[in-house]
Amino acid sequence: MRLLMFALVLASTATGAAADDAESEKSPAPSNKLTLAYYAFSSGTRGMDVNLRHTFKRMTAWVGTYHEDDGFNQTRVGWEYDYRNRWLTIVPSVQAATHDFLGATIYAEAGVSFFAIGGMGRTNLNPYWNLGFDPNDYIQFGAGYRDASGNTISAYAIHDDRLDTGQTNTHLTVRRYLPHEWRLTVDTVYQQGRGDEDIEVKSLAVSVDVDWRRWFVRVAEDPNVNYTPDRQLRFAGGLRF
């Protein structure tokens, strides 16, 4: 409840960052994003990930590699197309990874200030360590609000509609632009459903992102990461260039 109240306060705070960010908006946004991540599991496993994204005019491509000290490694590549007009956003993507993994998703928003959210994802069900921490084969639905300065609050559910696990991740996400080119994003996720080891999960995960100019950091805690018995702490950071 405190997290929910905190998110609503952030969303309702008067927007005071537009003037401070106006100067930075005049220069082109960096086209590259490098992210380094470290994952600590309660079972003692440690994971590390490196991801590099490059944004073209309408498209984004990425390459990344994930390593766990228990012997699991996976390298991935991906691509997405970004279509936007005043009323509609459509973002299809495809991804391939070692262990013969293939996947595709589509995300859409319809509306201006108030908008509806929809999406879906499909994979070939081969092994994949999901760094998005939502079900891989899913439907998505929700809604949100975005003001003229880009501050956003959205609520949406991502539900497994293929493997009959009942897994549903319900997100409340708040993004707030602050003075001096700071930005804060809080994502609170309620997870419920049956995990791969037939455990019943009902837990709350939280991640906090802080962006400043071209730098960013993320900290998250997940009591049942990817619907496993493992509690995970996540630390990530990087830069845009």
Short characterization:
The chain has 241 residues and is mainly β. The chain has helices at 2-12, 18-25, and strands at residues 32-41, 46-55, 59-68, 73-81, 83-84, 88-97, 101-111, 114-123, 138-146, 152-160, 168-178, 182-194, 200-212, 215-222, 232-240. The protein has one domain (2-240): Porin (Beta Barrel), CATH 2.40.160.
Pattern of helices and strands: HHEEEEEEEEEEEEEEE
Helix count, DSSP H or I runs of 4 or more residues? 2
How many DSSP-defined strands?
15
The CATH superfamily bears the name monomeric porin ompg
> What share of the residues does DSSP label as strand, in percent?
over 45%
CATH class: Mainly Beta
Average pLDDT works out at 90
> What is CATH's topology name?
Porin
- Overall outline: globular
Main β-sheet description? 14 strands, antiparallel, barrel
Strand order of the largest sheet: 1-2-3-4-6-7-8-9-10-11-12-13-14-15
Structural class: mainly beta
Cα(first) to Cα(last) distance is 38 Å
Q: Tell me the Rg in angstroms.
A: 18 Å
CATH-level-2 architecture: Beta Barrel
Low-confidence stretches: 1-25
Q: How many separate domains make up the residues?
A: 1
Helix content: under 10%
